[in-house]
Amino acid sequence: MDFADIARRAAAAREFTHTINAAQFTLRLPTRHEATVALLRASGGGDFAAAAMVEFRRALLAAGIVGWGGIVVGDIVPGGGDESLPWAAAAVPLLLDNRPDYADALGEVYMARMAERTSATEAAEKN
After folding, report:
1. For 69, which DSSP code?
2. Contacts by 54-61 with C-beta closer than 8 Å and gap 24+?
3. By C-alpha distance, which of 37, 33, 58, 60 is closest to 49?
4. What is the pLDDT of residues 49-66, one digit of tens each?
5. Distance of CA 60 to CAs 8, 79, 116, Å?
6. H or E element at residue 26
7. How far is CA 126 from CA 99, 104, 114, 117, 119, in A?
8. CA dist., res. 61 & res. 35, Å (int)
């Protein structure tokens, strides 16, 4: 499976064209993640710490997803069909961008497990 093609299709699904007089423009809507980071950077003079935290959490989650099952091309490309999509590191950010419900649910459980592990490690170090 060509993930570069899937990435192009996913990006194209967020694109539209608009014509002004004789000029035609192609625009691409941001993913929810891109919009959130941009909002945090722009709000109140730029909340770069909050934006960095959003990006940090996404990077941790993307690196932490090391396998999956039951994911189909349609999870990444709207209308992409139900062809099974094997896990690949390059596909993880596409999935997180196009399935924010998965990103939110996985992000919550991943951060909670990280906190539990940190607490357990710190408790073990004290003993």
Report:
1. S
2. 57/107, 57/111, 58/33, 58/96, 58/103, 58/107, 60/110, 60/114, 61/96, 61/103, 61/106, 61/107, 61/110
3. 37
4. 888 888 888 888 998 898
5. 24, 28, 16
6. strand 23-28
7. 40, 33, 18, 14, 11
8. 18
CA–CA gap between residue 88 and residue 95 (Å, rounded): 11
What is the full DSSP assignment across 75-120? Answer: GTSTT--S-B----GGGHHHHHHH-HHHHHHHHHHHHHHHHHHHHH
Question: Cβ(15)–Cβ(26) under 8 Å?
Answer: yes
Contact of 75 with 83, CB cutoff 8 Å: no
Tens of pLDDT, residue by residue over 31-50, are 888 888 888 777 766 667 88
